[in-house]
Amino acid sequence: MSAPAENNAREVYKRVGFIAALVLILCFYFALLGTIGLGLIASGTPAGAALGLGVLILPLLGAWAVVTSVRAAFAHQHLARRMHEEGGELDTSDLPRRASGRIEKAAADALFEQVKQEFEADPDNWRSNYRAARAYDYAGDRTRAREMMKRAVELERRERSGKQ
User: Fold this and answer.
1) Is the pTM of this model over 0.85?
2) Residue 87: DSSP 8-state
3) CA 78 to CA 146: how far, in whole Å?
Protein backbone atom coordinates (compact mmCIF):
# COMPACT_ATOMS: atom_id res chain seq x y z
CA MET A 1 0.00 0.00 0.00
CA SER A 2 1.37 3.44 -0.93
CA ALA A 3 2.00 6.12 1.70
CA PRO A 4 -0.98 8.34 0.64
CA ALA A 5 -3.30 5.31 0.61
CA GLU A 6 -1.99 4.27 4.04
CA ASN A 7 -2.61 7.76 5.43
CA ASN A 8 -6.09 7.77 3.92
CA ALA A 9 -6.86 4.37 5.46
CA ARG A 10 -5.64 5.62 8.86
CA GLU A 11 -7.86 8.68 8.57
CA VAL A 12 -10.87 6.48 7.76
CA TYR A 13 -10.14 4.21 10.75
CA LYS A 14 -9.84 7.25 13.02
CA ARG A 15 -13.20 8.59 11.87
CA VAL A 16 -14.93 5.22 12.15
CA GLY A 17 -13.45 4.72 15.62
CA PHE A 18 -14.61 8.15 16.71
CA ILE A 19 -18.14 7.53 15.42
CA ALA A 20 -18.23 4.10 17.10
CA ALA A 21 -17.13 5.68 20.40
CA LEU A 22 -19.86 8.32 20.10
CA VAL A 23 -22.49 5.67 19.40
CA LEU A 24 -21.37 3.67 22.45
CA ILE A 25 -21.53 6.78 24.63
CA LEU A 26 -25.01 7.52 23.29
CA CYS A 27 -26.11 3.95 24.03
CA PHE A 28 -24.93 4.37 27.63
CA TYR A 29 -26.76 7.70 27.85
CA PHE A 30 -29.96 6.19 26.39
CA ALA A 31 -29.80 3.29 28.86
CA LEU A 32 -29.33 5.76 31.73
CA LEU A 33 -32.30 7.84 30.58
CA GLY A 34 -34.40 4.70 30.20
CA THR A 35 -33.56 3.65 33.76
CA ILE A 36 -34.48 7.09 35.09
CA GLY A 37 -37.73 7.06 33.11
CA LEU A 38 -38.71 3.63 34.42
CA GLY A 39 -37.86 4.75 37.96
CA LEU A 40 -40.13 7.77 37.61
CA ILE A 41 -42.95 5.60 36.26
CA ALA A 42 -42.50 3.17 39.17
CA SER A 43 -42.77 6.03 41.68
CA GLY A 44 -46.53 5.56 41.63
CA THR A 45 -47.44 9.24 41.40
CA PRO A 46 -49.27 10.63 38.38
CA ALA A 47 -46.67 13.38 37.95
CA GLY A 48 -43.81 10.86 38.19
CA ALA A 49 -45.45 8.58 35.64
CA ALA A 50 -46.01 11.47 33.23
CA LEU A 51 -42.42 12.65 33.62
CA GLY A 52 -41.18 9.07 33.26
CA LEU A 53 -43.03 8.64 29.97
CA GLY A 54 -41.57 11.92 28.76
CA VAL A 55 -38.06 10.83 29.72
CA LEU A 56 -38.55 7.44 27.99
CA ILE A 57 -39.37 9.19 24.74
CA LEU A 58 -35.93 10.85 24.64
CA PRO A 59 -33.85 7.67 24.28
CA LEU A 60 -36.33 6.30 21.73
CA LEU A 61 -35.99 9.42 19.60
CA GLY A 62 -32.23 9.39 20.08
CA ALA A 63 -31.94 5.73 19.08
CA TRP A 64 -34.05 6.39 15.99
CA ALA A 65 -31.80 9.33 15.03
CA VAL A 66 -28.62 7.28 15.52
CA VAL A 67 -29.92 4.28 13.56
CA THR A 68 -31.16 6.37 10.62
CA SER A 69 -27.93 8.40 10.53
CA VAL A 70 -25.71 5.31 10.59
CA ARG A 71 -27.82 3.57 7.93
CA ALA A 72 -27.62 6.66 5.71
CA ALA A 73 -23.86 6.87 6.24
CA PHE A 74 -23.42 3.23 5.16
CA ALA A 75 -25.62 3.79 2.10
CA HIS A 76 -23.70 6.92 1.13
CA GLN A 77 -20.39 5.14 1.62
CA HIS A 78 -21.61 2.31 -0.62
CA LEU A 79 -22.42 4.79 -3.39
CA ALA A 80 -19.09 6.57 -2.94
CA ARG A 81 -17.25 3.26 -3.22
CA ARG A 82 -19.13 2.34 -6.40
CA MET A 83 -18.51 5.76 -7.93
CA HIS A 84 -14.82 5.53 -7.10
CA GLU A 85 -14.57 2.04 -8.62
CA GLU A 86 -16.33 3.25 -11.77
CA GLY A 87 -14.18 6.40 -11.97
CA GLY A 88 -17.21 8.68 -11.71
CA GLU A 89 -16.26 10.78 -8.67
CA LEU A 90 -16.09 14.53 -9.19
CA ASP A 91 -12.50 15.66 -9.64
CA THR A 92 -11.99 18.71 -7.44
CA SER A 93 -8.22 18.42 -7.13
CA ASP A 94 -7.49 21.41 -9.37
CA LEU A 95 -10.19 23.74 -7.97
CA PRO A 96 -9.06 26.76 -5.95
CA ARG A 97 -9.57 26.41 -2.21
CA ARG A 98 -9.94 28.70 0.78
CA ALA A 99 -7.56 28.53 3.71
CA SER A 100 -10.09 26.23 5.42
CA GLY A 101 -9.76 23.71 2.59
CA ARG A 102 -13.25 24.30 1.20
CA ILE A 103 -13.61 24.96 -2.51
CA GLU A 104 -13.99 28.63 -3.37
CA LYS A 105 -17.61 29.64 -3.98
CA ALA A 106 -17.21 30.64 -7.65
CA ALA A 107 -15.42 27.39 -8.50
CA ALA A 108 -18.01 25.31 -6.63
CA ASP A 109 -20.82 27.12 -8.45
CA ALA A 110 -19.15 26.49 -11.84
CA LEU A 111 -18.73 22.81 -10.96
CA PHE A 112 -22.39 22.68 -9.94
CA GLU A 113 -23.52 24.14 -13.28
CA GLN A 114 -21.53 21.47 -15.15
CA VAL A 115 -22.97 18.65 -13.02
CA LYS A 116 -26.48 20.13 -13.23
CA GLN A 117 -26.37 19.70 -17.02
CA GLU A 118 -25.33 16.05 -16.58
CA PHE A 119 -28.19 15.54 -14.11
CA GLU A 120 -30.78 17.18 -16.37
CA ALA A 121 -29.68 14.89 -19.23
CA ASP A 122 -30.22 11.75 -17.11
CA PRO A 123 -32.25 12.50 -13.95
CA ASP A 124 -33.22 8.87 -13.28
CA ASN A 125 -29.64 7.62 -13.06
CA TRP A 126 -28.30 7.23 -9.53
CA ARG A 127 -24.83 8.29 -10.72
CA SER A 128 -26.02 11.69 -11.95
CA ASN A 129 -28.00 12.13 -8.73
CA TYR A 130 -24.94 11.22 -6.65
CA ARG A 131 -22.76 13.67 -8.58
CA ALA A 132 -25.42 16.38 -8.21
CA ALA A 133 -25.57 15.72 -4.47
CA ARG A 134 -21.79 16.11 -4.21
CA ALA A 135 -21.90 19.30 -6.30
CA TYR A 136 -24.66 20.74 -4.08
CA ASP A 137 -22.52 19.92 -1.06
CA TYR A 138 -19.45 21.64 -2.54
CA ALA A 139 -21.64 24.66 -3.38
CA GLY A 140 -22.80 24.80 0.26
CA ASP A 141 -26.44 23.75 -0.24
CA ARG A 142 -26.62 20.94 2.32
CA THR A 143 -30.41 20.58 2.23
CA ARG A 144 -30.53 19.88 -1.50
CA ALA A 145 -27.41 17.72 -1.21
CA ARG A 146 -29.19 15.46 1.30
CA GLU A 147 -32.31 15.29 -0.88
CA MET A 148 -30.30 14.33 -3.95
CA MET A 149 -28.26 11.76 -2.02
CA LYS A 150 -31.46 10.13 -0.72
CA ARG A 151 -32.72 9.97 -4.28
CA ALA A 152 -29.40 8.50 -5.47
CA VAL A 153 -29.53 5.82 -2.76
CA GLU A 154 -33.08 4.86 -3.74
CA LEU A 155 -32.27 4.75 -7.46
CA GLU A 156 -29.15 2.65 -6.83
CA ARG A 157 -31.15 0.20 -4.70
CA ARG A 158 -33.69 -0.14 -7.50
CA GLU A 159 -30.91 -0.75 -10.01
CA ARG A 160 -29.34 -3.44 -7.80
CA SER A 161 -32.66 -5.19 -7.29
CA GLY A 162 -33.54 -4.92 -11.00
CA LYS A 163 -36.71 -2.88 -10.40
CA GLN A 164 -36.08 0.00 -12.79
Assistant:
1) no
2) T
3) 15
